[in-house]
């Protein structure tokens, strides 16, 4: 297992908020550049919804002291949201293999969170469910056939990887959410 930790860390970083925000921002910019405002707005709404629901779920579970779930996986939620949306955009122009590959990335991120011992399987499943709900919102809002080609998608993904490598894993939301949950827990007692 120790030899897999670096690989699992690389996979899990694809769900890090720093990566997802950078990749989503690049993809939104690419969509706007080709005139697909509707899909750009849909992606922004899906990513924001995923982040908001994840934060609320984390606070709710932390405050409620549910033994089986402490903190739904934000990495799983954000990776599921981003990669399913990316897959839907790519599949509009290319074979469905792109959508399947993106779904595999999302599931690998969720599995990596469990394998690294950061989350329980239940917490990862809740994260995937949140991401899938945000993706459903995206599907309802996006243009029927997004007009973004493969080139801009590759450029935004490469830029996001580069930006994330520069910034690193420094985006930490868990501790502030724990403080809010603790305060709410005290109020509830």
From TrEMBL:
Keyword Transmembrane belongs to the record: yes
Q: Which domain of life is it from?
A: Bacteria
Where does the sequence pass through the membrane?
17-34, 41-61, 73-91, 98-116, 122-138, 147-167
Keywords, comma-separated and alphabetical? Membrane, Transmembrane, Transmembrane helix
Q: Which InterPro entries match?
A: PAP2/HPO (IPR000326), PAP2/HPO_sf (IPR036938)
Record domain Phosphatidic acid phosphatase type 2/haloperoxidase: where: 71-141
Q: What Gene3D superfamilies does the annotation carry?
A: Phosphatidic acid phosphatase type 2/haloperoxidase (1.20.144.10)
The identity of this protein, by name, is Phosphatase PAP2 family protein
Q: What is the species listed in this Swiss-Prot or TrEMBL entry?
A: Methylosinus trichosporium (strain ATCC 35070 / NCIMB 11131 / UNIQEM 75 / OB3b)
